[in-house]
Amino acid sequence: MYLVNSKMYKVMWSLLLLVLVSGCSTVSVNSSSEEQGDYYEEEDENRDPWESYNRSMYAFNDTLDHYFLKPVAEGYRYITPEIVDDGVSNFFGNFTMPLVIVNDLLQVKFWQAGKDSLRFLVNSTLGIFGFFDVASSMYLPPHREDFGQTLGYWGVPSGPYVVLPFFGPSTVRDGLSLVPDFMVGFTINLDTGVNRYAMFGLGIVDVRADLLPFEKAVAGDKYVFLREIYLQKREYDVKDGVIEDDFEDDFGDD
Length: 254
Fold this sequence. Notes:
This protein has 254 residues and is mainly α. It contains eleven helices and two strands, in the order αααααααββαααα.
């Protein structure tokens, strides 16, 4: 789980994911409801073979969120002025940039690595340790890269969907990638001891608070909704937004 680079970036991602989920829910106009049901059942079995376990772990995480993380996030949002909330989001977005740059290089994206390095330098200095996102106004937008994306870039399959305790939606590939992600994150962090974990905790609360307005968008089976959002978002991340459509397969050639 990563702290995204800015509040506007999170809003854009949320809207994009809602569009992707809506598009995924459409089916061929010539398909019967029975055929549609068989199709989605087969898809779920292929992508989510551990659904029974995943639903149990999802229920555990959801209970933890309901009774602990969400109330803390609501309190944080209530007492924190918007300008401070924006600054905290910007700070943690800048804080993760070295990890992004490492994965830029591992994916042979040297031009992007250079731009991300410049973004990190600008926001760390002119932006006062990243509290202000000065770089975006200089046409240096944020990027998001992690080791899961790097493995996907080099052709490593995602594996089955899995819900991790505390961390939530993931896949086998992304779950294993958390280890090098955290190792690099801690290595590049100059703080030690309790300060490091306090910052990590604050970052989680900040992200959770910024997601509060989007909870009303969740409809139907929340587990399935979040699963589809996660899987499609990760595909979008790995392929850098280049998603193959299947319109020709659905409608055939004239």
